[in-house]
Amino acid sequence: MLIPIALAVIMLGIGLRLEVTQFSEVIRQPKAILYGLFGQLVLLPALAFLIAWLYPMSDTYRVGLLLLAACPGGTASNLVTMMVKGRTALSVSLTAFNSFIILFSIPLVLYLGTGSFLDTPLDVRIKPHHVLPEIGLTVILPVVLGIVLRRYYRESIKYWEQWLRYILPGILIAVFLWVWMTESNEQENNMFDMLSLIPPLLILNIGSMVLGYFSSRYICIKKDGSSTIAIEMGLQNTALAIFLANAVLEKSELGLMAVFYAGFSFFTTWFVGWIMMRQSKKTTTFAHSNKNAE
Length: 294
Hints:
Elements: H1 2-15, H2 20-28, H3 31-54, H4 59-69, H5 75-83, H6 88-117, H7 128-152, H8 154-186, H9 191-218, H10 223-234, H11 238-248, H12 256-293
Helix pairs in contact: 1-5, 1-7, 1-8, 3-4, 3-6, 3-9, 3-10, 4-6, 5-6, 5-8, 5-10, 5-12, 6-7, 6-10, 7-8, 8-12, 9-10, 9-12, 10-12, 11-12
């Protein structure tokens, strides 16, 4: 119960820094959100399939990697995008749209994955009540409330903005630590198994960000939008993956990859996203300097 409340508080804080006009821009120029969805729902699982085929690990871990890749980023990716000053409205919009699409995409990815790596493919059905109420209460409603509060209490909100940059990451890190400690204690694995899972997870994390950034730049999406897409592809909804493994699939071992991913991905995604945004700003500043010089 505490985790959904914490996530809702984080999304409320994010909403306090957003304007309706930012979402209007996302709708008027839909290339970024359409390609972001393509990256999360097609490119990311494809990369996970490639890693699962090539990297030596048990078939259970291979399916767990695909389950992780099939669960697009949520609150964590929204917060990281805000922290590195990316397009937060685009990030939140991707989360909202994904909440509906994953009802069909996750069963498809798992069916293909289990059919490839296990003896019998799993015919998984995700019911709307497994996902949609939580997304509505922890993402959409808090963001809408934050936007409304910002509109009518702008001066008061400005005072709190300086503290939100510290409070919100602190809450999310506490949530990650709680999930990681709780789930890792329930898993019976030796240290060697734990260490052997880090390389493929790092490859998925960093590789998906690089793929998302440069492929979106290739189709002329602006650098802040490309960085946001990279963050969305690099940071998965580990809580959803763990929930599906435990409650829906009833195979807790499939959630192990998500448990380990939750232990480091927030920090690596933030660091790589920060580098991408920093390089984007440097390039923009350099271009403006040259233009003024001319």
